[in-house]
Amino acid sequence: MQTSSVCAFCTACSYCYLELAFLLDSSSKTIGDAWTRILEYTSSVVAGYNIGPSCVRAAVISYSDNAVVSIELNRYNDRDSLQQALRGLRLLNGGSNLANAFNLLRTRVFVSNVIRQGTALIAVVVTDQIQADQRLTNEANSVKGQGVRIIAVGITRQGRVDTNTLFGVSTNNYAVSVTDYNQLSGAVSSVTQRWGCFPVPTTPPPAIGN
Known about the structure:
- By secondary structure, the chain is an alpha/beta fold.
- The chain has helices spanning 34-46, 79-87, 98-109, 134-145, 163-169, 188-195, and strands at 3-4, 18-25, 56-63, 67-71, 120-127, 148-155, 175-178, 200-201.
- It has a six-stranded mixed sheet, with helices on both faces.
């Protein structure tokens, strides 16, 4: 298939064609503005993509002990609406179970009757609490087996991030750790320009329903 050299976050809508899911750690925080900072980071990443039904579509999974689809993949057709919805997401509180979020991504969000044929699939994990767990490894591998590229972003300030596990759940060690929430802004380009950037078809397939 002939491809363009323009990346997935380009300004020309006709070149942007991927499905993007954010898996946000919504467990209890010991830092007052931690959740706000995570949402701000996610919004900054969204700003790097052309959000639209025939361009980049984005979903959000919030997870603590359980995982919920906070924003469906086809819910918002423009960047501003998506960012506004992101800012309104509430903290779930409780423990942190990324395995449940991966399972939900695989069985509910990135499913064949929802994703568009031929799209690149990207999952961005943003977490401040991750530890080694066999079920987590198994769920991450199942997601990767679907052809999903996993990018992991960890905040280590609370001392609850095992960096080996953070890198292990990612695809090809596509992971970055920062020591504090206010350093997340420096990790935006890791998603939008390094690991979440694809050459795409010069003539992408039509959006679902067209």
